[in-house]
Amino acid sequence: MKLDKAVTSILAGAGIVGSALAFAFQDIAANFISGIFISFWHPLKVGDIVSIKGYMGKVKEVNLRDIIILTFQGKMVIIPNKDVFQNPIENYSILGKRRIDLEVGVSYNDDLEKAAQLAIDAVKDIEGLSSEDEVTLFYKEFGESSINFTIRIWYSSSEQPQYLKVGHLAIIAIKKSFDQNNITIPFPIRTLDVSWPENIH
Fold first, then answer.
1. DSSP-assigned letter for residue 87
2. What is the distance between the alpha carbons of residues 89 and 73, in angstroms, rounded to a whole number?
């Protein structure tokens, strides 16, 4: 009887180990096959700026098992090929340019057409902007303390430092132009009622 139990336990254990190995090899096979598809499909390559599963950075290595990304925070992220293949890939390098969207608000007392033109004129001569794409601006909503617009700027590089620099320069240029032309960028105002009820002493 004890021998039967021992044999049964061994066989059960072997079954668990076999199942674990099967799952492990299934993942290896899935990553390998996905790597082959990626190598033919070419959705990304070394040097591309991509965003996959919430990780954004520059592709450092592409192999048959995984993709290695260096994030802009300086972290190396290894993403299995099956996750790359089964999830959306945002590739910022394919077009060779990137769009910057800036959200800006102007006062309800200001001339909206004048403010829009000043904003466009302020950014259109920033060095490195795409010659194929115009700067565009659209008012989009009546906010609590401002009327808000989005200004869209295309930069002729996909690299992150240049992208950040153009946004930086655009913000400075718009603020400077608005200051010189008495256009107000309002900030939210809150009124606090601190009066005490008369019956409280």
1. S
2. 19
Start-to-end Cα distance in the chain: 87
Q: Structure tokens of 154?
A: 């295309």
pLDDT tens, residue order, the chain (201 aa) = 443 444 345 434 445 444 544 455 566 666 657 767 777 788 899 999 999 999 999 999 998 889 999 999 999 999 998 888 889 999 999 999 999 999 999 999 999 999 999 999 999 999 999 999 999 999 999 998 999 999 999 999 999 999 999 999 999 999 999 999 999 998 865 555 555 555 555
Task: Give backbone dihedrals phi and psi of 107, rounded to 5 degrees, phi first.
Answer: -65, 150
Measured distance CA(45)–CA(2) in Å, rounded: 60
pTM: 0.75
